[in-house]
Please model this.
Amino acid sequence: MNRTAHIMRAVALCFIAQSAFAQPVPNGELDCLLQRGIRSVLLQSYDEAESTFAATTERFPESPAGPLFHAAVLHQRAGDLGIEFNSGMFDSLLTLVHVRCDVRTSRDPLWNKSILATAKGMLAVEAAEEGSWVIVIRDAIASSSLAEEVLGTDSTMYDAALPLGNYYYWKTRKTEFLTWLPFVGDMRDRGIALLRKCAEHGRYQRYAALNSLVWVLIDAARVDEAIVVVNTGLDAFPRNRTFLRGLAACQERMSDPLQAAATWLEVIATLSNERHTGTFAEYASRINRARCLLAARQYAECRQELDRAARVEIRSVPEWMKARMAAKRTEESEVGDALARAMSSR
Model:
């Protein structure tokens, strides 16, 4: 999976958190279940999160929220660990989202549109990973259009700012060579502003917006701002690997490779403590740490980390992950070669 798809995957994670702002909320019991489930996601307790969202889907058969967030857990787990992705179940859950939104349209149209905007965005991410770019464009445009309708009707529906903010930023970013044309504007600042709005006031997408902001600000070379944002996420969930990876990326771009190496060690430790070893996530984290140690001229430690990476026995390589795996194997070789050159010149 290329870097753009990796960022899109990160952007699509459906985190939920309590918020003290005025955004309308659904049934109190439903809201409580959603909050509980997504907290489990943020704590990386994926089995518990799936169980909660499955129960939510059954307890509230008219609501599209349960299957939406259940699908998000499948995506998050696969992306976090680099393991097989149950695309069949993912697609079935999002189909159920569409069915339930159709049933409930007249009862709560803004809630439905906000849910559908997220679902369409998730489908666009899945299509990007499969290289189906026509579907990516179709679903991304549908997602942004729904979000625009929601915010145009009620500006306090802050969660809808997440898909729209991402769409504005990345649409401009991927077509910036055309922004000199009169009909193609630069919407990056508008996208960042929307993401900040969701991060400040969103009820169900606050942490997703924080994560999106980290990668958007890194891409925009505003790393000082990105590190403030990522630390906001880590203050709440210190062991969350999504935010730890963002922190390591910030540190590396701030020319602090030794600190970045320490952060990658934290990622590796959480994988080990939670018995998620022998996955692509462990292997990739070790290569990333070796790269940082090389930049910090910690050659002995770099060699040790490369040796540990070589000993990782990845149990299986899912189809969606094979391109990333090949890229990491190449990087492993390049870091090893650079290390040998550095050692020989001492």
About this structure: Confidence is low (pLDDT under 50) at residues 1-22, 177-183. The chain has 16 helices and no strands. The radius of gyration is 20 Å. Residues 40 and 48 are 6 Å apart (CA to CA).
